[in-house]
Design brief:
2 domains, GroES-like_sf, alpha/beta, Quinone Oxidoreductase, Chain A, domain 1, six-stranded parallel β-sheet, 10 helices, NADP, globular
Length: 336
């Protein structure tokens, strides 16, 4: 099989395309023939050594992907050969990720892709959708489904990003009123396509006052991408006992706040790094994301605010570079 590998941490040029034997699934594993691989910021950061150091002779990048079950390891009764699936956290706990024609994963990391759902969508789910799910369920609501956010207001900071887009779609499906902030008319169009009910350019006017008009009692959950720059706005609009769920450090690496003024809000700050989330929360995320896909509530493509950028396997370095440069939408690697 063809696979992209790297033998040391470094720039995208450290990766090379090579031939490797098709792996065999071990007990409790499945072998997946990949059709698409998704590329996320975590992929290039791991490869570059910013969030993990290489501790194996070689590694293949890629957490997310979609494809077809090729064979089953001993003890697997939850899947069948030929079943379309989407993968999550593939490279977590093993050196081999989704930038390859085949990969083995524990069976629970291969989730059925419903009929009618594309491989493009399947490869776009993992990191963005499951991070969005954990952000939304960091407060009073433990599961995302029809009606679970009825009567609540969710603020998604940076709604044009991959996680922000997924949060908008999931929250709207669950019945929330969704407010999002963006920085340009082009990104406003993406947030509208995702299904946001109220879209505010944070560079114009008084966004805190505008949000308070929409939610006089404050917003229940904030999905936050840039806490260092947004914390004053977040505290100004959060409801008492609300939750600010932080999944990235865009705009700065340090967060400061006036403690005494914050005490009275009784709010929760939830920091999220997907690979440290509790297993039961990961299972819940996979189940709820799968249900949203089956309901047609979670989709990709420009019509849902997620432009798609396709690269061939031999162009994986360029795909990583595009994500590192801030490509808007979803970067995918085509494997057939």
């Amino acid at each position: 099989m063809r696979a992209v590998v790297y033998s040391e941490n470094g720039p995208s040029s450290a990766m090379r395309l090579t031939e490797r034997p098709v792996p065999k699934p071990g007990p409790g594993e499945v072998l997946v023939r990949l059709v698409r691989a998704g590329v996320n910021p975590t992929d290039w950061k791991v490869r570059a050594g910013l969030s993990a150091s290489l501790d194996t002779p070689e590694a293949t990048p890629g957490q997310d992907g979609a494809g077809v079950i090729e064979s089953l390891g001993d003890g697997v009764s939850t899947h069948i050969v030929g079943q379309p699936v989407w993968l999550y956290m593939t490279q977590r706990g093993q050196a081999w990720g989704t930038a390859a024609e085949y990969v083995t994963v524990p069976a629970h990391k291969a989730v059925e892709l419903p009929a009618g759902a594309s491989y493009d969508l399947g490869a776009s789910l993992g990191v963005p959708a499951m991070t969005a799910h954990r952000a939304l369920t960091s407060g009073a609501v433990e599961r995302v489904g029809p009606g679970s956010f009825e009567g609540m207001v969710v603020l998604v900071q940076g709604g044009a990003g991959a996680v922000g887009n997924a949060a908008i779609q999931l929250a709207a499906w669950a019945g929330a009123t969704v407010v999002t902030t963006i920085s340009s008319p082009a990104k406003a169009a993406l947030a509208k396509a995702a299904g946001a009910h109220h879209i505010l350019n944070y560079r114009e006017g008084d966004p805190a006052a505008a949000i308070r008009e929409i939610a006089p009692d404050g917003v229940d959950v904030i999905v936050e991408v840039a806490p260092a720059v947004n914390n004053d706005l977040d505290r100004a609009v959060i409801a008492k006992r609300g939750t600010i769920a932080i999944y990235a450090n865009n705009g700065g690496d340090e967060l400061t706040m006036p403690l005494r003024e914050t005490f009275s809000l009784n709010l929760r700050y939830q920091f999220i790094q997907l690979y440290g989330v509790e297993p039961e929360q990961i299972r819940a995320a996979a189940e709820d994301v799968a249900a949203a896909v089956a309901a047609g509530a979670l989709r990709v493509g420009p019509e849902r605010g997620v432009p798609l950028h396709h690269y061939r396997l031999e162009e994986t370095a360029a795909a990583h570079d595009a994500v590192e440069a801030g490509a808007v939408g979803k970067v995918l690697i085509d494997l057939e």
